[in-house]
Write a structure and sequence with these properties.
This protein is mostly beta strands. The chain is built from 1 helix and 10 strands, in the order H-E-E-E-E-E-E-E-E-E-E. The strands form 3 sheets. Strands 1-2-3-4 form a 4-stranded antiparallel β-sheet, with no helix packed on it. It has a 4-stranded antiparallel β-sheet with strand order 5-6-7-8, with no helix packed on it. The chain has a two-stranded antiparallel sheet with strand order 9-10. The chain is globular and about 45 Å long.
Length: 167
């Protein structure tokens, strides 16, 4: 694999095709997070709403909404774990596979609660739900980072343990 590095310049950024995709014309609410696909053609955004988070995919050429993805359940909202901690601010999680064929997303309680979590794996090529994974509560903190392997066949969810904890 070869890697080329080009110097960054402000003039290069102004010609970026992301312009239409990030203008206020398509935003109904503030964006909580955004992630660009490896090929640069899709921008995944997350907007917080009263019912949770809305995950959306947009075309970077024209800002067109490609798809609003099925909602990811809030942590602890099901699986018999009870509601998520009320003082925790949820954290949206997103990852594209390196080849751009899959997208994983979910929500994690920022407060590090041990509630159950759901992660959704979306097949971008087929525009279809591949699976929903349920992470059981753990003594470790909730998953806060996601990474996907090629074709979305490997999903890594990283739980960030607090300093001094073993387990």
């Amino acid at each position: 694999m070869s890697l080329s590095v080009a110097p960054w310049s402000a003039s290069a950024c102004t010609r970026s095709p992301l312009g239409p995709a990030i203008t206020s014309a398509w935003r109904g609410a503030p964006v909580s997070a955004a992630l660009l696909s490896p090929d640069g053609r899709t921008l995944a955004t997350v907007e917080q709403s009263s019912g949770g988070y809305a995950f959306r995919l947009r075309d970077t050429d024209d800002g067109r909404l490609v798809r609003t993805l099925p909602a990811a359940p809030l942590p602890g909202a099901d699986h018999g774990a009870g509601p998520a901690a009320t003082d925790a601010v949820p954290l949206p999680l997103m990852a594209f596979s390196p080849d751009g064929t899959a997208f994983a997303y979910g929500v994690s309680p920022w407060g590090g609660g041990a509630s159950a979590q759901s992660l959704v794996l979306w097949d971008l090529a087929r525009a279809a739900l591949r699976t929903t994974l349920y992470l059981a509560p753990s003594r470790a903190a909730a998953a806060k980072y996601l990474a996907l392997g090629p074709r979305g066949r490997l999903l890594v969810a990283v739980r960030d343990q607090s300093a001094g904890q073993i387990g």
